[in-house]
Description:
72% of the residues lie in helices and 0% in strands. The chain is mainly alpha-helical. The protein has 2 domains: 2-72; 75-103, no CATH class. It is elongated, with a radius of gyration of 18 Å. 9% of the residues are buried.
Amino acid sequence: MSEQLKKEFTNRIIELQARVSSIHGDFAQGRDADWAEQARERENDEVLNALESEAKVEIQMLSNAITRIDNGSYGICDTCGEDIAVARLKVQPAALKCIQCAD
Length: 103
């Protein structure tokens, strides 16, 4: 089970890294000479920045989850030490706390 999770997390990290690379490619493209188009490009940059930030946060969370799998602490609440429900981990694979401690 833990090897399967590590594989899933690693695959997701690879997807996210590809997304970040694609975003960097979009930023590397030059600006249009038209002022109206430049305004649209700036708005697009804001969206791309947000997507990049979200991807980087998820990469870090999944990397941390892999570390917890390796050291045997994955699925154990950081606060109370109880097991985190499987249903919660399915929704939030990088969860650090059980549902009771997360509130």
